[in-house]
Design brief:
By secondary structure, this protein is of the alpha/beta class. The protein is built from 10 helices and 17 strands. 50% of the residues are buried. Bound molecules: nicotinamide-adenine-dinucleotide (NAD).
Amino acid sequence: MTTTCNVALFGQKFMGRAHSNAYMKAGRFFNVPIQPVMHTIVGIDLISLAPFADRWGWKKYSTSWKEVVKDSAIDLVDVSTPNYMHAEQSIAALSAGKHVACEKPLATTLKEARMMRNAAARARKSRTFVWFNYRRCPAVALAYQLVREGRLGRLYHIRAQFLQDWAGPEAPLTWRFQKKYAGSGAHGDLNAHIIDLARFITGEEFTEICGAVSETFISEREVLTPPSKTGGRTRARRRKPAVGKSDVDDCVLFFAKTNKGTIASFEASRLATGHRVTNTIEINGEHGAVRFSFEDMNTLWFYDHTEERRLAGWRKILCTAARVHPYAGAWWPEGHGISYEHTFVNMAAEMMAVLAGDESILPIPDFADAYETQRVLEAAMLAAKHRAAVRLTEVK
Ligand SMILES: NC(=O)c1ccc[n+]([C@@H]2O[C@H](COP(=O)([O-])OP(=O)(O)OC[C@H]3O[C@@H](n4cnc5c(N)ncnc54)[C@H](O)[C@@H]3O)[C@@H](O)[C@H]2O)c1
């Protein structure tokens, strides 16, 4: 069995840094069965590529993903480009026999996501992964375990929010505000994460979107030079800045029902003034409840409804105990928390475990799994558009 995995990473900005850091650290903090090797970094900005490769320890760099995808030395292609590139790059990598790790949301449309799912199913020797990294928070993994152990009993409610406030009128027209590049706005960016969290923790599948509302508050934004799809932030030096259309949602709220009769509410916004990364999920069941909030990510709140009522109350569990809390043993002494970056390191290490045939780890979403999240996204958009309930059986 090979003991190394040569990685080619497409994208060198926000996720480019997060994933570079993950591949760099996975084999140092975890006993990985296969070592990720930082082989080639791919971007479109040649000037910054060489320093990026040098700084993060990538052996090679390239501006041609089409050449790199065919390189026989590459084992795993990591697609961390804007959403509109995910399908083409992932399918090309699968066709070339590579494993693929793709960022979320899986694609800009359900049609593209379906093509990706089908390509993954055809590529039997390839494994696919989707970077729903919040599954890799120790507190989220503990919530998953508690639900599986029946500590919450039958579930009644899922209440999830992902709120940010960085997309005010001053935010320029990057790819994230253009449907052709992003697919949607806060919905695919943020609701995708909390839909995945809800499906992961509960193990239930959504069967109906009961109602939804989508709003675009800011429909024009300042255009950047050079072209906005690079994600660059250099403003044009003009007296009167050019403006372009932002045609994605700024916020989407929806209600849903699962196959077990649990009811759920979801809210995603990038204009929730005062919120930075309020990524929260609460699940209430017959015997107990759990609550997670990313800004306090080392903590899981647990309510045990079987306790004597006189003493019952929300219990704050610091998920840093090496032998009992998922991932904690790989990091620091008890009480010393981890952060956002560690979720990616945890996932990179577990991707290597999966490639070595270890199926004992907590599920990592593959393309088939992420396709189910994309169906929920699509159904919610349809529900908002038609102001009507949408059954998931109508969305395939
Ligand atoms: N999991 C998370 O928490 C999380 C957070 C942020 C973004 N994301 C996802 O990661 C992806 C990238 O987002 P980002 O914030 O890093 O974007 P970004 O704008 O910061 O970076 C995009 C990168 O892609 C490169 N790129 C664009 N077109 C390319 C091409 N044809 N070939 C190669 N490289 C190309 C750009 O040069 C840039 O380096 C998106 O799908 C986004 O939804 C996930």
